[in-house]
């Protein structure tokens, strides 16, 4: 994905950079998000990519939507609706670009925090052997079960071993750039403990206990929500469509609106039910501890 952005930035910025510079002050809040999301392009380059994609999308959508609307409306209305809806969809795509870095950060944060409570317990075990703090982070950076968390620790270890930073400065730097608030709090707490000369092993043991209790609480909440979602799924996706299909068929037979009933049943079976199922599946995925 990073290679794609780099390639598009190289191609789009010469043509659309001057327009991107004009609107960049209105989207200054994107600049730190791009860095945290590790999207390797400047704000102006990212906006130039967004402008190019939106223009391309608008050009492609217009003839397609005009053709679709011309089936149901006169050609004049079809052209008006085609241009109007193309404009709306283009604006929506632009704001999806604006929201994309925050989405990437949220996803990275979720992946980091998924294995954080296990990693804290592992860190506590390593610290109990009187290992130096840098070795603790290097051990976590070599874990393969949680690659996002390992990647964050690799950056910290790189700052110490390659760039020659001291441990406290490296901890502060990593806390500033990590997308995870929980990892940020942990790193700053470790920095305070190391600076004050406190017991790192005792702190990590206490933190591991708290993290385990928090994880158990999240599991209980997820189990309760999953039971509720299963009832919603049975009602909305299994029982509801059966009831609607039978009822609409009976009413169509009595009132003679068979064609409309078939269309409604088709929309229900091939569009509404799959959309509800996808939404529920995605919600379960993002809320799984």
Reconstruct the topology from this structure.
Layout: H1 2-23, H2 30-36, H3 43-72, H4 75-114, H5 116-127, H6 133-141, H7 147-161, H8 167-177, H9 181-196, H10 200-255, H11 258-287
Helix pairs in contact: 1-3, 2-4, 3-4, 4-7, 5-6, 5-10, 6-7, 7-8, 8-9, 10-11
Q: Outline of this structure?
A:
86% of the residues lie in helices and 0% in strands. It is mostly helical and 289 residues long. The longest helix is centred in the last third of the chain and has 56 residues, at 200-255.
List keywords for this structure.
mainly alpha; 289 residues
Structural class: mainly alpha
Mean pLDDT over all positions: 84
What pattern of helices and strands is seen along the backbone? HHHHHHHHHHH
Largest sheet, in brief, is:
none
Distance between the termini: 26 Å
Query: Which stretches are poorly predicted, pLDDT < 50 over at least 5 residues?
Result: none
Cα-based radius of gyration, to the nearest Å: 27 Å
Helix % is over 70%
The helix tally amounts to 11
